[in-house]
Write a structure and sequence with these properties.
403 residues, five-stranded antiparallel β-sheet, 13 strands, alpha/beta, eight-stranded mixed β-sheet, Alkaline Phosphatase, subunit A
Length: 403
């Protein structure tokens, strides 16, 4: 038996007036996923434990079957692992977004226009981060370049500030009430202010503005944490695992869990990603001796953050046609029995443009046991209607891996 997780990040949603009071899952044309819902087990699962924020870090660790409260030490250390940073026990790490702020003279009066600086390219971002590193790095503080707008700050012998706000939570909002105010946080705020002064007239940003693109004119710190301690996935579940994702967060989780991290050319973390390439990489990995493959697809979440209903629906349909359909057909053509878990990590409602802690709808489909539990399609309402509710991602994973 092979095990496949199709994780559509932020795929679940609320009913939207612009979608005739339907959710993107209800609007999307997803015949293969709906078939699996009719012939599998559908329900709701709570992936965010009490007291933790509904980030993709917490939620994906949960879906992967970890006890998040026992192992979670923050988001940025997971991303740092992907970048290849050797974190020490006394280090503090922070996610460093390149963002677009409005141009008021005083930093505190600015507005968060775009948490991703217009989905800045990795090449442009690397040039900006390397420039900032030359100006801001010290013996204690070091900036590292990641992918697109997602980067990392490492502070040697650092202290946790505890009062950072994810930038995607405050899109189009004034930043004044979301700046760090603790004594430690003010040190990081000083770096953010300096970054704006350094970036606002950088040639990369001048060129972006001339092309009608948003400038990456400031760093924004959040997601602080310390060195993680994550049990190997094989030790935990007895399966040789692989991780397929475009984003550092999931690659970092994969590395720390000692899973095979598979790079896919053209994987972008948005709706223009290489959906087909991820599906093929999964099938190839399973054929090579991998037992468990986790395909993380960021696109629905990014669309949710931007309030982009059309491309969120498009992304869900691409998951159905280019990922789920391909894997199903290939596994059946090879005569390979498999179980597939389809779910988001958390909802990212279009109307809120950020994550929420609501339970997520899931499908467990087993190729050797076509047995539905009442769902007629894969939607939030159908999942609620089955009456099946699972209290944690750890319990969901154990249920999924039952022989």
């Amino acid at each position: 038996m092979k095990y496949i997780v199709i994780l559509g990040d932020g795929m679940a949603d609320y009913c939207q007036k612009r979608l005739n009071d339907k959710t993107p899952l209800e609007v999307a044309n997803i015949p293969i996923v709906d078939y699996m819902a009719k012939n599998g087990e559908v329900g709701l699962c709570r992936t965010i434990p009490d007291g933790l924020k509904p980030g993709s870090d917490v939620a994906n660790l949960s879906v992967l079957g970890y006890d998040v409260k026992a192992c979670y030490t923050g988001r940025s250390p997971l991303e740092a692992a992907s970048i290849g940073i050797n974190i020490q026990d006394t280090d503090v790490t922070l996610r460093a977004n390149l963002v677009t702020l409005s141009n008021e003279e005083n930093y505190v009066d600015k507005t968060m226009l775009d948490y991703s600086a217009g989905e800045i390219s990795t090449q442009e971002a690397r040039e900006l981060i390397e420039f900032l590193a030359e100006k801001l790095n010290s013996e204690k503080v070091k900036l590292y370049a990641g992918i697109s707008y997602r980067h990392c700050l490492v502070v040697e012998n650092g202290s946790l500030a505890g009062d950072f706000t994810p930038p995607h939570d405050i899109t189009n909002q004034p930043i004044k009430n979301h700046l760090p105010t603790s004594s430690v946080g003010k040190e990081y705020l000083e770096l953010m202010v300096k970054s704006y002064d350094l970036l606002k007239d950088h040639p990369v940003n001048k060129k972006r503005i001339s092309l009608g693109k948003r400038p990456a004119n400031s760093l924004w710190f959040w997601g602080e944490g310390t060195k993680p301690r994550l049990e190997k996935f094989k030790d935990r579940y007895g399966l040789k695992g692989a991780m397929i994702s475009a984003v550092d967060l999931l690659k970092g989780i994969g590395k720390l869990a000692d899973m095979k991290v598979i790079e896919v050319e053209g994987a972008t973390g948005n709706y223009d990603t290489n959906f087909s390439g991820k599906a093929k990489a999964c099938v190839d990995a399973l054929a090579s001796g991998i037992d468990f493959c986790y395909i993380h697809i960021e696109a629905p979440d990014e669309c949710g953050h931007h309030g982009d209903a059309d491309n969120k629906i498009f992304s869900i349909e691409q998951i159905d046609q280019k990922v789920v359909k391909y894997i199903k057909e290939e596994m059946e053509n090879r005569g390979e029995e498999y179980s597939m878990l389809i779910c988001p990590d958390h909802p990212t409602p279009l109307c809120k443009m950020t994550h929420v802690s609501d339970p997520i709808p899931f499908i467990i489909y087993r190729s050797n046991e076509l047995k539905g539990n009442g769902a007629k399609a894969y939607t939030e309402k159908e999942a609620l209607g089955t009456g099946l509710y699972i209290e944690s991602g750890e319990q969901l994973m154990k249920r999924f891996l039952e022989k």
